[in-house]
Amino acid sequence: MTTITIGLDGANWDLLGPWLSEGRLPNLQRLIDDGVGGVSESCLPPLTVPNWKCYATGKNPGKLDVFRFDRIDTANREHVFHDATDFRSAELWDYLNDDGLTAGVVNKPSTYPPKEIDGFVVAGGPDASESAYRSLDSGFATPERVESFLREELDYRVHPSPMISPSEKGEAEVEAVLNLVDLRFEAAERLLERENPDFLHLTVFYSMALQHYFWDDEPVRRAWERIDDHLGRLLDDDHDVLVMSDHGTWHVDTVFYVNVWLAQHGYLAVDGGVDELLQRLGVTRERALSVAKRLGMVDTLSRVVPERLQRMIPWEEGVKRDRVLSVVDWEETTAVASNQGPIYLNVPRDDAAYEGIRDELIEELESLTHPQTGQQLLKAVHRGEEYYDGPYAGNAPDLLVDQGENVHVSDAIGPDDPVADSGVWVGGNMPEGIFLFSGPSFQSEGLTRRASITDLAPTLLHAMGARVPDDLDGEVLDVFAEGSEPAAREVATRNPLSEDRLGEESDDANVEERLADLGYLE
């Protein structure tokens, strides 16, 4: 029997509840009726990265040394982009291998470049990309025979084409995502049959893009009905199954432009440049992509126009992501923020003013409310090294914001007002996701539980008879059926695998080229 994890990026029960009640998701309902689960709490920030790694390692980011897909290095005034080799921990499939079990991983984010394991790894978006708008044609899977099979037999693609974007979210883009959902499940099923691993992980990722742009409208419902159909085929076999998500999605009622607020309150100074001029002229990335798609020239332009020139074109919201640092006046700046949470101080930590600035920012940010509704914009602002735990907690961002309910915190520089009622996204990230264990080994209790995302790896390891490393944050959940083999067995622990088995470090410049402005829709 293969144990299977099906990861559904951005899933939460509030979104799925109405469709379950209407009988639109019968196979997921069957898993609920036969299984045990509930709400899974993700680590802050509630993003694809780091939370897929928090699931796979059973650890918080303070033990991984990666806190989101990039970080701002204020000393060198640059973005540093992470790939799979930057995470300082083994994953659950490494421990399964070490205990003699094979594993297959399909499409999990933060697995590029794919490492060699006893089994196979098929890297997932958003990080597995040759450049901003072109998927990898090779080098996305190990071993070679698996990549050859996927490429030759299934015409496998890492990213949808055409890529969904703020200005291009019509039927063609929706169908591309739905087709990719089909392809993911087909690849997983075929590899399950060909390779027969003891454990299989599958992530469905780009359906989250539909939730960002449509929330719970018809394209999202279609995606979930498609997912449910595929679940039905896996349910025909007697597998132990975990269905889970890295975080949830809520409707965005308010956008808080944190860098605009920092600028208005004297913490951030901005120099206008080419980005501001292009935006005033109406030249935005959304419009450029729209024209390129209509002319069928996206691939051509991505090859002939240098990557750094592509990134100079601003988004309609303004300057975002890796371009933020290009407009910062560093000599006059005290703090700058990234999307959905981290704030970095441009002040040395041993400076006498450092703690005072943090105290001041925490007090001011936690008191912010919506000017019309009075809603609290941020639930809390944490000191990074206090929120996280582990040997790398000291490398965390200086401050970490916990977004208020139905609030999306954007790093865009350009809007006149720091608070808006709407933005690019209709659905934004929230910490509450889902988990659901079902199968012969598990109880039939329904959705009654609450757990941390870090509890899932140790629970899977114990379910499969593997030893649980003693440095995990998560615990083995009490979810096993009375009389089942895992319920009768004591949890066996072990020392963690050493870091020297985790792979070689990669070139940050290459990572930046793959990640910057990719249709990375988290």
Automatic annotation (TrEMBL):
GO terms for molecular function: hydrolase activity. It comes from the Archaea. InterPro entries: Alkaline_phosphatase_core_sf, Phosphodiest/P_Trfase. It holds the Pfam family Phosphodiest. Residues 487-504 have a biased composition (Basic and acidic residues). Residues 485-522 are annotated as: Disordered. PANTHER family: BIS(5'-ADENOSYL)-TRIPHOSPHATASE, ECTONUCLEOTIDE PYROPHOSPHATASE/PHOSPHODIESTERASE. This is Alkaline phosphatase family protein. It comes from Halobacterium litoreum. The lineage of its organism: Archaea, Methanobacteriati, Methanobacteriota, Stenosarchaea group, Halobacteria.
